Amino acid sequence: MQFQPKKYYYLISFQYLGYRFHGWQKQPNVKTLHLMVDRTLNYILEGKYFKTLVSGRTDAMVSAESATFELFLQHEIEDLNGFLALFNYNLPQDIRALAIKEVDEKFNIINHPKTKEYFYLFTYGEKCHPFCAPIMTTILDDLNIDLMKQGAKLFEGEHYLKSYCYKPTDKGVYTRQIETCELVENTIYTANYFPKKSYLLRVRGKGFMRNQIRLMMGTLFDLGKGNLSLYDIKHSLQPDVFVKMNYIAPASGLILNKVEFA
Questions:
Q1: Residue by residue, what is the 3-state secondary structure of the chain?
Q2: pLDDT tens track for 204-239
Q3: CB 210 within 8 A of CB 166
Q4: pLDDT tens-digit map of 165-200
Q5: Which of 73, 92, 150, 205 has its CA 20 to 30 A from that of 226?
Q6: What φ, ψ does residue 145 adopt, rounded to 5°?
Q7: 160 closest CA partner among 217, 235, 103, 70
Q8: Chain CA centroid to CA 175, Å
Q9: At a CB cut-off of 8 Å and minimum separation 6, what does 53 contact?
C-alpha cells in the first residue's frame, strides 16, 4: 500500500493593487497575482510541495481589499504569525497578506458557500490627478447621480442577468440573486489628490459572472449620461430578455472588498 503523506490546509486572506497585474490566473509571458504569490511561496518554503487555490479570480487591473486563497501543504506550519511575516517580507509591495488560519480537509474554497462584496469607485466632471487612475474611474461627462442611485436599486433581488454577462452562452445560469446594490458617496477611500467628491457602487451577492459588475456599472454610467432610461434597465432584467450592453466600465475602478464564508 502506497504511503500518503498527511496534508495540511490553510486559509490566507490578502489584499492587492491590481493595476500592474493581468488578473489572478497564471498566463504565459505576463505578470499575474497567482504567479507572484506562488513564486514567493516557493522561495520561502524552499521548494517543498505546496498548492494554492483562490476563492475567485479577478480580471486584469482589478484590485482587492480582502481576497482569500487556500494553501495546501504536506507539512505543518508551526508558527503561523512567523510564516505570515516572512510571506509579507518577500511579497512585492502591491500585495499584502492579512491573516492565516488552519482549516480541515472538509473545507473547499471553491464550493464552500460564500458571499462576495465589490466596490466600484468613480468620479465625474473633471480630469483627475493621474495617481487616482489605479483605483478610480473618471467620467468627464456630467452624470445624474440621483437617477443612477435609482437605477442601482433596480438590480437588487432575483433577476435574469444574461444581459450583464460578457459573451454569454445558451447554457449559463442567468437567474441570480443580488443581495445589495447601492450607489453612495465615497467616504472609505481618501487621499489629498482625490477629487472633492467621489462615489461607490456597492454590490453584494453569492457569485458574479464574467464582467457582470463592470457591465452593471457601465449601464449606470449610460443611465447617468442620459443614453438609457430606468425602463431600459427594468426591461433588461426581465426573464429570457437579452440586451447586448456595449459599455463595460474600466477594470481599474473595481475592488473586491471582502469574501465571507458561511
A1: CCCCCCCEEEEEEEEECCCCCCCCCCCCCCCCHHHHHHHHHHHHCCCCCEEEEECCCCCCCCEEEEEEEEEEECCCCCCHHHHHHHHHHHCCCCEEEEEEEEECCCCCCCCCCEEEEEEEEEEECCCCCHHHCCCCEEECCCCCHHHHHHHHHCCCEEEECHHHCCCCCCCCCCEEEEEEEEEEECCCCCCCCCCCCCEEEEEEECCCCCCHHHHHHHHHHHHHHCCCCHHHHHHHCCCCCCCCCCCCCCHHHEEEEEEEEC
A2: 999 899 899 999 999 999 999 999 999 999 999 999
A3: yes
A4: 999 988 889 999 999 999 999 999 999 999 999 999
A5: 205
A6: -65, -40
A7: 235
A8: 20
A9: 69, 70, 72, 109, 110
| Residue indicated by cell numbers 462584496 | 117
pTM assigned to the model: 0.94
How far is 218 from 231, CA to CA, in rounded Å? 16
- β partners of residue 52: 71
Query: Ramachandran region of residue 61, left (φ > 0), alpha (ψ -120 to 50) or beta?
Result: left
Stretches in the chain below the pLDDT threshold 70: 1-3
Terminal Cα-to-Cα distance of the chain (whole angstroms): 37
189: its cell numbers: 477611500
